[in-house]
């Protein structure tokens, strides 16, 4: 029974070691190191919440300008162009110089009832066409309006826009403090996570050293295989703790990158970790 448990424990320990090697972050380039002040400055410069608050101030400034415009006169200019393809016209036909209905001026006052009416020559007729209007029609209209008394509407709108401006400024201040706080928390979170990794690495070294001692004592016949099994289980547990610690440190670095306004996959590190000396 004991050898079977021993083989299972060894297999679990090897699997934990393989997972530990795969979970270790592979960093192809040098990490960007931040101090605490640099972390806060980067958060203020790059965090999207800060940019949103700044855009809110710009929008509030535009509303103040728009409300202030109510105190000044407004001028409206409009223009239009129309092309008239067909114009109304009047046609005058003088019939070779004679006015319509008056006949020939040379025979005015002389009438001959038996005379044959003259036949008009179409080529000799004089026709005049008169068009009314123009084909190109341009129009320009200028209107000016100044509201002298609006029953307090303009003043209230202006005061409301100023209040919105002050609210946007306070919102930016509050957002800046919140972003700085999250950057500080993420900064120290990375430090704590790295320290947890150091503790887990030391615990694994101790478990490994204990396993070597137990094997030596087993070869000397001082202890039984059950003691060896317990030492191997302790090493497997230490490997699992180290894996969790390293994963937690990696997640802490990613959270720190987001807190300072960078991409979550950015390779970052912090400067401020205490140096531990082994005794």
Beta strand %: 5-15%
Residue windows where pLDDT falls under 50 for at least 5 positions: 1-10, 15-27
Could you give the order of strands across the largest sheet?
1-6
Structural class: alpha+beta
Helix content: 55-70%
Shape: elongated
| End-to-end CA span | 41 Å
Oligomer: single chain
Q: Give me the strand/helix succession.
A: HEHHEEEEHHE
| Count of separate DSSP helical elements | 5
Mean pLDDT: 81
Q: Biggest sheet, open or closed, and with what strands and sense?
A: 2 strands, parallel
Please give the number of β-strands. 6
Please give the radius of gyration in angstroms.
49 Å
Question: Can you walk through the features of this model?
Answer:
This protein has helices at residues 2-23, 36-46, 48-68, 153-220, 225-259; strands at residues 32-34, 74-83, 89-93, 127-131, 136-145, 268-270. The longest helix is centred in the C-terminal third of the chain and has 68 residues, at 153-220. The strands form three sheets. A two-stranded parallel ribbon has the order 1-6. It is elongated and about 165 Å long. The protein is built from five helices and six strands; from the N terminus they run H-E-H-H-E-E-E-E-H-H-E. It has 279 residues and is α+β, with helices and mostly antiparallel strands. 16% of the residues are buried.
